[in-house]
Specification:
- The chain is of the alpha/beta class.
- It has 2 domains: 60 residues, no CATH class; 188 residues, no CATH class.
- Helices cover 47% and strands 22% of the residues.
- The chain is built from 12 helices and 9 strands.
- It has a 7-stranded mixed beta sheet. A two-stranded antiparallel sheet has the order 6-7.
- Strand 6 and strand 7 form a beta hairpin.
- Helix 1 crosses helix 3.
- The chain starts with a helix and ends with a helix.
Length: 272
């Protein structure tokens, strides 16, 4: 279905955000030839088609099947950090199948650990309800981003350790707090909310490095960003996240969400 219907529909007929994809790829990989960029954009739209099918498939897949589809290589490291600092933040990105990473909530060996995933409420109520049901099925609880600070204050008094997954790779709004850094050959603003919260509450922080060994299957390895955030220099955690994300993207560039207009605003637009 993905190859026969969704891919040609999205790429050849609808041409879904194709201008944005081409601009993003061209500026991110200036060393690539036109033929290489053309091949990459096709690979991305094949992955994007797979992703849409996988979201529906994951809604009905059993916990046993998901353990085969998403393998967490060093989950014990994340569990240890969560117990040590009571809470931990996992920096996520729109890479691979980021929705399936939420299945980590079903795979902790320490069942006292609770998984929370921060999300932005969708404008369409039916779509929002469907995505919440999907994400909750994966073993975690969803927190709307505007309620995050309040929820964390309450969690400080909870008995159970927890992990908060935060997607932090999208463009900030003009009202957001952000950090500038070099990313994929471009000056880029990154949201620094994860860093601010980690330092405020003393939570350890990791990056979830995701890659696909074969179609429909993913592996995740957690990489330490900070086990004592208060000792980190300002902006260091956010810039480290950006560097790890860039490495992750360059290893499998077709796996990132290139349809997002990531560089819509430069410094002048954001700060002007």
């Amino acid at each position: 279905m993905a190859d026969a219907i969704i891919y040609p529909l999205m790429y050849y007929v609808v041409r879904y955000r194709l201008k944005v994809v081409r601009k993003n790829m061209r500026n991110s990989f200036p060393e690539k030839s036109q033929s290489e960029l053309k091949q990459l954009e096709k690979q991305f739209y094949h992955h994007f088609a797979d992703l849409l099918v996988e979201v529906v498939y994951g809604y009905r897949a059993s916990a046993e099947e998901m353990r085969k589809r998403v393998v967490f290589e060093n989950l014990d490291m994340l569990e240890d950090l969560a117990r040590k600092t009571h809470g931990a933040i996992a920096y996520l990105a729109h890479l691979g199948n980021w929705e399936w990473i939420a299945d980590v909530g079903n795979q902790y060996s320490d069942k006292s650990i609770v998984e929370y995933n921060v999300y932005r409420q969708l404008k369409n109520p039916k779509s929002d309800k469907m995505m919440l049901e999907l994400r909750s099925k994966r073993g975690g609880e969803c927190i709307e981003k505007n309620q995050l600070l309040r929820k964390l204050v309450l969690l400080l008094h909870a008995e159970h350790p927890f992990v908060v997954g935060m997607l932090a790779d999208q463009k900030p709004s003009k009202r957001s707090s952000y950090v500038w850094t070099e990313f994929l050959h471009q000056e880029t603003a990154f949201l620094d909310g994860s860093e601010v919260l980690a330092k405020k509450f003393g939570f350890a922080a990791v990056y979830a490095h995701i890659w696909s060994p074969k179609r429909g299957y993913y592996r995740v390895r957690f990489e330490l960003i900070a086990d004592n955030p208060s000792e980190m220099q300002p902006e260091r955690m956010t810039k480290q996240y950006a560097a790890l994300l860039e490495q992750n993207i360059c290893a499998q560039p077709e796996q990132w969400l290139w349809t997002h207009n990531r560089w819509k605003w430069g410094r002048t637009e954001l700060e002007g």
